[in-house]
Amino acid sequence: MIPALLSWSGGKDAAWTLHAARMHGELEIVGLLTTLTEGHDRVSMQGIRRDVLHAQARATGLPLVEAWIPQAATNVIYEAAFGDGLAEAARRWPGVRDIAFGDLFLADIKAYRDALCARFGWTPHYPLFGRDTAQLARAMIDGRLRASLCCVDTARLDPRFAGRAFDATLLDELPAGVDPCGENGEFHTCVAAGPMFDAPLALQRGETVLRDGRFAYTDVMLA
């Protein structure tokens, strides 16, 4: 097996990538790498609280490497922080130069990650890439993954979906044109349970707030 890092957002795709890696046996995930935003102490994009993130990492049994970016960071700043995170991982696990991502079908994002990793001398892997997302979403739910929508792009999906469980009922109610896995950025999730966790997390739903006039974030807290 190839020892590798996993880009961990706290969402379902990253979690299922870990599960797939463990099932298929090609990659041995040795640690998680997460980007967080200074001041908010939350996962960038997902908005997941840092203490929830740490609880997720403990449930996977894997150590966590944190890469910090300032609020309103430029892409240049993000890439530098990502590179710093990879450098820290290389110090912790000498010889590890592979990293897995949970991307599903966006070729431009994959090409961007390929180029970024090449700059830092790392090899990217995409265990879920190319999977049919409608089938994959059902497989996640049937496979006992439990998650909720922690962020909804209200320009793509009605804000009433924010905070809802990622389950079969939600999939049945998604409007036509919305990807079942939210791969186009329609929504992001926070994982509470699944076969990649030693035990489910006790989480509770907080308030939902609209940020930047567009993104409905639902707070998820440790119970």
Q: What's the gist of this structure?
A:
The chain has 223 residues and is of the alpha/beta class. The chain is built from 6 helices and 10 strands, in the order E-H-E-E-H-E-H-E-H-E-H-E-H-E-E-E.
Commentary on this structure:
There is one protein chain. By secondary structure, the chain is an alpha/beta fold. Helix content is 32%, strand content 28%. The protein has six helices and ten strands. Strands 1, 2, 3, 4, 5 and 6 form a six-stranded mixed beta sheet that branches. Strands 8-7-10-9 form a four-stranded antiparallel beta sheet, covered by helices on one side.
Key structural traits:
single chain, 223 residues, alpha/beta, 10 strands, 28% strand, globular
Estimate the helix proportion, in percent.
Answer: 25-40%
Rounded average pLDDT: 97
Multimeric state: single chain
What's the β-strand tally? 10
What is the straight-line distance between the termini? 37 Å
Shape: globular
Biggest sheet statistics:
6 strands, mixed
Low-confidence parts lasting 5 or more residues at pLDDT below 50? none
Radius of gyration (Å): 16 Å
Compute the number of helices.
6
- Helix-strand topology string: EHEEHEHEHEHEHEEE
In terms of DSSP E residues, the strand content is 25-35%
Label the structural class: alpha/beta
Task: Compile the SSE list and pairings.
Blueprint: E1 2-7, H1 12-24, E2 27-37, E3 42-43, H2 50-60, E4 64-69, H3 75-92, E5 98-100, H4 107-120, E6 123-125, H5 133-142, E7 146-153, H6 168-173, E8 187-193, E9 203-211, E10 215-222
Parallel strand pairs: 1-2, 1-5, 2-4, 5-6
Antiparallel strand pairs: 2-3, 7-8, 7-10, 9-10
